[in-house]
Amino acid sequence: MISDSYYRRKYVISGMAIVIVFVYIIRLFYLQVIDQSTKDQADNNALVKQTIYPSRGLIYDRNGELLVFNQPIYEVTMVMREMGPKWDTLAFCKCLQINREEFDERIKEIKDRRKNRGYSRWTPQVFMSQLKKEDIATLQESLFLFNGVQIQKRTLRDYTYKAAAHVLGSVGEVNQKDIERDDYYTRGDYSGRDGLERTYEAQLRGEKGVEVLMRDSKGRMQGSYHEGELDQPARAGTDLYTTLDIRLQVLAEELLSGKIGSVVALEPQTGEILALASSPTWNPKVLVGKERSKNYNMLLNDPTKPLMNRATQAMYPPGSTFKTLQALICLQQRAITPNTLYPCSGPQSTPIKCTHHHGSPVALDKAIEQSCNPYFWCAFRDLLQKDGYGDENEAFRHRYELWRNAVMEFGLGQRFTDTDLSEQSAGSIPSIAFFDKYYGKTGWKAITIRSLSIGQGEILATPLQLANQAAAIANEGYYITPHLNRNDSMRIHRHNIDIEEKHFAAVKEGMHMVMVNGTGRHYAIDSLNMAGKTGTAQNPHGKDHAIFIGFAPVDDPKIAVAVVVENAGFGATWACPVATMLMEQYLNGELKRTGLKKKISESVLNESVKKW
Amino acid sequence: MRASRNGNILQHVDWPTIGIFLALVVFGWLNIYGASYTFDQTSIFDFSNRAGKQFTWILGSLFLGSVLLLIDYKTYDILAYFAYGVMLLLLLATPFLAHDIKGSMSWISLGPVSLQPAEFAKCIVALTIAKYMGQYDYKLRTWRDLIVPFAIIGVPALIIMILQRETGSALVFAAFLLVFYRQGMSGYVLWVGVAAVALFIISIRFGAIPLPLGSGSVGILSCMLLLTAVEIYFICKEHRMRWQALILTGSVVVIYGLCLIVNIWVRVPFDWISMGIVIALVLYNIVISLYWRKYFLLIVAAFTLFCIGYTHACDFVFQKVLQPHQRIRIEVLLGMKEDPAGAGYNVNQARIAIGSGRFFGKGYLNGTQTKLQFVPEQDTDFIFCTVGEEWGFVGSVAVLLLYLAFILRLITIAERQRSKFTLIYAYSVAGIFLFHLTINVGMVLGLLPVIGIPLPFFSYGGSSLWGFTLLLFILLRLDAARMEQLN
Known about the structure:
The complex is a heterodimer. Chain A is an alpha+beta fold.
């Protein structure tokens, strides 16, 4: 109430206060209402999402036998900051059975930010990983002595049998590509790298869970956020029931030991793969944990290429086993009838000599039984020349195309696309374009491609395709894509073959006779009513490959088998006994011919094949 | 009319002010509990944590306030100079008695607690200024009359800044400029202060002009444009020449337009051109001032010339004179440098804390930024973060409005006094609170550089709370006695 001339200045001063507060309110409005970025930044500051790893699905065989399971492994972590002066380094080393130098070395590695980017003194750092239960047992008991040390559990794969390594595949750390392709993965995660583990990764891996924890400014964990409101439990992976019969699989691998080769056994009506063996192989346990990369490199550098799944990836000329298909196609396309006779002059036959001695002329059943080369050459020639050659060779080339399509109906010359087998080769049934390129459109005739008549030359097939071919014959006109998952989802992949049933009967009879009078007779078991066809694939690099396809029993086939033994010579000598023993094991539930089993499994055809 | 000396004190005390004071103290105390709240938190009254300690300080403050209300109002007038002398001695002695706390030498230990004498200095300086400027025969007419008041605030400020290394506490004395202004100091002094800060920021903030548009520094050019406007304004205002204003402005625009056209062929040094224009205007100004004998305009001319030099000197000062940590703080604040882990850490975390509170806040004791201690000093200088994070926009605005009401109330109190002593003291109190609020909240909101001064009644700390209590309750005592006082 002092009246002085500067009285009005109170308005200026009050105005300043009002303007300042108003400016601050605008700033607050910007920060708290308009700017959206800070909410996430606060969450990034304070919330840590800790992953909870689900346990991976187990893998069983067709009889419920456990094949793959999880073993716990342990990680020792330490928080550097909590290691006080009383921390007894020597005692700690003793617990983990390491020496002082190793300890110091490891600590140096942890603290090296170039190698360990996320290093913080406040957060747990992995000191040692992938330890077995027995490795950490001592430490576990005296853990209370070591401040900041924790033991964390993770899981690794373990295997009941040291078999089926190729089929089961393995689990390994994800690479950069996986992380980019699928945002489920983060660095350090595991995923199926090959085989079933890869195909059924999505099913087996389950769903990672997350636990939202709060972290203070120094990186220390301070408990769960909002009483775990945002937490998500991990969902365990779903178990996988496979079509494998583990006893058959083990037997197959045993019989192949010391040899390079492969076995595929199918259930014809369902396309289920009963056994799929490739030799050389390895013990699946060696591609697990600490030793994985070392062992993987060893397998990678092995000259016998054990990592290659020969049952699905190796390609061979099918040799005489192809005659079964040849007969079916020639019958269906009316080039021959079961009663058509062709002469055979044995080894003097031209253009293809016969390797067996039998009467002449021969009909179809006898020709299959005796694997008569001249018969199939004549049949193939008559098929291709049925309409003559035409002015521009077009009639012949058209016939060839029909023949090739018929062959491919059996699944040859292409990959099975509707299956769960990961690694496959396509094989090859040469196309018209292929021959046109080499000989010109008019430059090739039936005689040019005569080796195709007996499954040699440019035809290539994988053992899986051969087994599928046997199954298709056993089924008399269809096959279901070979697969490994035992649920019904795969059974719908039925492929019908455009060949009349009666023709199959003739071929099946021929194949049955092979096991009675023909090349397979020495190893047949009459009560099982086997049918089969031996083959010997010419190999320009060395001794011939022994091949056998077959099924049993003839009337109601339960198993179809294909066997390839590389550089073994006659199919009848090496591949046929392996196949018949597998049939015996599967159909009778046991193998009585132990002497034969011992003899085959102990014979070493290739010295460099490693034993496991 | 005369009230009995002490008996009726409760009738005359300004209860609205006490109400706001209590609201601020209690809300501040709750937020200190929130800011120092951790997971194994004890009671809000536990002396081992900061909220518990603050509770003790609050009780002490209420006791202090009551005692102050009982003391005879004349005591303050009588003891002002004596207290000032004692205070100077104490401030001088402090660095020798103090131990180093974060580079500051301003804390004296008294057993279990530490005191910061600088917090009490504000109050004593305010009383001294009030006594000196409130003398019957004191009139603020010329610059000479301000020499003593500037000395009264300057000496303790320099001691605190140089000996105790507490720049923040020393800057608070700038609040007395408001008092001087109220008492008749020219408003231009405030404007010069604002202009100095603005020119400094503009000249260092902006880099070179983009090449196609000519050469030179954007900062210098902007400053010169500003000075051109100031010159034209004053020339025309003082000489009442409206049409000349149009001619002058028009000429300047035409010159810049011509430069832009020339710039197509030859790159024009715009900073030199703009400086030439300003100097031409200054010369014109001097000529007509001498002619019309309007000497005030000579001051404007001198000021403009000074500004030209100042603008060029700013860059030099910024690069060569300022300490590296001060330079970084300014650069971070002006957005010239991103340094979220270093100097910008506090400010960035404070921004995140406040921003993440959104409109309604995360709820009391639910702030992740504060609870997990991401903001350093969050219960002292950065306490406003906790308000922003846990109480949101609504809570922050409420607190700001509460402070605004408080300050406006203090101005109202000041203006109803009969005694010049009390009026000046009241404006000192209002100015000090306004200064603390402005600097502290401005810093937390990232609008001002980080200067460590507390938010009155909110920030944790006994010294600051008692210092502000002293300041406020002396005023309330003087106000309660306003009817007894002489003009």
